[in-house]
Amino acid sequence: xxxxxxxxxxxxxxxxxxxxxxxxxxxxxxxxxxxxxxxxxxxxxxxxxxxxxxxxxxxxxxxxxxxxxxxxxxxxxxxxxxxxxxxxxxxxxxxxxxxxxxxxxxxxxxxxxxxxxxxxxxxxxxxxxxxxxxxxxxxxxxxxxxxxxxxxxxxxxxxxxxxxxxxxxxxxxxxxxxxxxxxxxxxxxxxxxxxxxxxxxxxxxxxxxxxxxxxxxxxxxxxxxxxxxxxxxxxxxxxxxxxxxxxxxxxxxxxxxxxxxxxx
Length: 264
Description:
Rossmann fold; single chain; 7 strands; 14% strand
């Protein structure tokens, strides 16, 4: 049997090596590890955490294969990265948007290697999720064929948004990502009900995904949710101090929970 080849991934690691590792997983297409590097990662490192960030396949400075973008490919990359870096003990996973879906999928498949999961503006993988993501990616790729799209984005949302969209063009136009996401392997729903890990799901209160909160709490037995007022889907970038504080509190709460379990 031929071993699975994982693409070369660009990584960044800050903070004290080996101490309470936190792994940050970014979103899809217009995202990369810098969304963490310039928001919550420095505060996590300053608090004493070993912080690992990486560009997912096809993003940032990581390798961009023409095919191989099913959810399980992204999850396999995370597993291989953690094997290679050999972080000490179970890791705390933080995922933004699509990165949260990758983090949850990894936790479902490797629960013994995860201390807990915090997702921002995210949801577990379902058939509806895969269809929605494929439609969004395919629609974005189609619109970006119009040369008027980028100037309009820059006028409407600013140069930074236009730069991110420009960087996403090779992924959207040069790979099978939209088709592959639609063909992702979806775990049976009953498996989520057996996931015995603490999960915190954070949403911007004005985001469409905020309506996922009750569903998350009913599906995942260890899940609680939190909404950040005045913010939408870009809450990580819009309220980094709030998100950073939530991450630190969540990690400390996990430590307290494990200590109490050991005493019992």
